[in-house]
Amino acid sequence: MSDGLLLGIDFGTGGCKVTLVDCAGNVVDSRSGEYPTSHPRPGWAEQNPADWHSVMCQVLGQLPRRGEVVAVALDSYTHGAALLDAKLQIIRPTIIWTDQRAVAEAAALKAEHGDLVFATAYQMPAPTWTLPQMLWLRAQEPENYKRIKHILFVKDYVRYLLTGEMACDFIEAQGTLFWDMKAGRWSEELCALADIPMSALPRIGKPTDLAGKISARAAAATGLPEGTPIFMGASDSAVEAYSAGAVEPGQCVLKLATAGNVNVMTAAARPNPMTLTYSHVVPGLWYTVTATNAAAVCQRWYRDQVRGGSDDYAQMNAEAAKAPAGSNGVMFHPYLMGERSPYWDSNLRGSFTGLSMSSGHGDLCRALLEGVAFSLRDCHRTIEEMELKVSGYLLIGGGSRSELWSQIVCDVFNTPLQVPASCDASFGSALLAGVGAGVWSDELSAIRRCLKLDRELRPNPANAALYSKLFARYRKIHDALAATNNGD
């Protein structure tokens, strides 16, 4: 196949992005749109599945050449369960991965079944996983729980609306705590912990397997050609690592998106109670994840809640650039939704410290960027403790488009960083669609043919030395406030 366009559709935590790629791997067009997350109570985070589909249709409508699409693949954030009843209607809003309501359920799982869960799923229970969320629903919304007949996940639900087929890839399934890593199938034993019938779970395939074809109804709603094949796709973090060119053991991806990740590629699974463990889209490759709950979303929060939503990110970054490294003593901890790595503490809360009468908007804007970078560096400590070999660093995510923020991360890590030209998940999904459709023979051939680097950063020695001292302070402030956040 040499004609036509490949379409990747990404459902991130904050919005949908679509990318058109030609069969030579060149980006032809890309559009995006945001959908809301509701926070009905502190620590809660929910989305309406209808918003995923409607925003996708809106951004697809902005692609003049969508009628030339010959293959599609979707990706999405993990742990977002769309619950359907017997009439295939959504039962309630989706509890998303940043939600912290299932703290007690996760703690009980860990205490009573932690060894079983970790040995089977390679992960330790935490509120972010689907299994604890389902236990919360069973206890707090029993009537809704009884209505559940089908469980899909973000991209899989949208793909069902496009094709009428229910399916899921095995990497997405690894993000549930329902999956048996060694056996490569849904675990009856883990599902039984929440009384989840196996019939409620979708069939499983590989990321490049055919999942279905665009229906006539979906063609009318999206403008995509009827009958276009849609391939499985995978979780956004797996596809992002792939699209960035992290396809060899030792490569490390630093992600500045809604959440922040430090992901190291490994030749074999390296499960650890303090990390997440996933398969890569490249067969046989794995990656270890340490992650902070809030990264670029902190800028969105600051824009909307502190500055009234009137500023754009470029303006905020321009103000931040006027402040010196260290933000005149202001420091930010990005625990707006509790924290995962390295603390796994849902009670942590965000904070600005070091404020004085002389502190200005630029200091706060820069402190926010520095605080997220410090949080990523904090995540990296677990990688060091595990003695995972790192051969090089790639910076990805929406935050990497900011030259200032990228340089801050480079200086905080005190190491060269490469920034790929097309490193978002929608680009990687388009390549997976091409592999599924036969444009490229396999996943490695596709990324090696299509990968392009945008720029390479090198640390500023003076700023790196300053940030090394400030990182020690960052950790001390965490330690001092953690006791207060936990009521001690």
Molecular structure report:
This protein is of the alpha+beta class and 488 residues long. It folds into two domains: 234 residues, ATPase, nucleotide binding domain (Nucleotidyltransferase, domain 5, 2-Layer Sandwich), CATH 3.30.420; 209 residues, 2-Layer Sandwich (Nucleotidyltransferase, domain 5), CATH 3.30.420.40. Helix content is 38%, strand content 22%. Strands 3-2-1-5-14-13 form a six-stranded mixed sheet. Helix 13 packs across helix 16.
Secondary-structure map:
Blueprint (H helix, E strand, L loop, with lengths): L4 E7 L3 E8 L4 E8 L11 E2 L1 H12 L8 E8 L4 E4 L9 E2 L7 H19 L8 H11 L1 H5 L3 E4 H10 L3 E3 H4 L5 E2 L4 E2 L1 H5 L10 E3 L4 E4 L2 H7 L6 E7 H8 L7 E6 L3 E7 L9 E4 L6 E7 L4 H10 L6 H10 L8 E3 L17 E3 L7 H25 L6 E5 L6 H11 L3 E4 L4 H13 L5 H8 L2 E5 L3 H25 L3
Parallel strand pairs: 1-5, 5-14, 9-12, 15-21
Antiparallel strand pairs: 1-2, 2-3, 4-7, 6-8, 10-11, 13-14, 15-16, 16-18, 17-18, 19-20, 22-23
Helix pairs in contact: 2-3, 9-14, 11-12, 12-13, 13-16
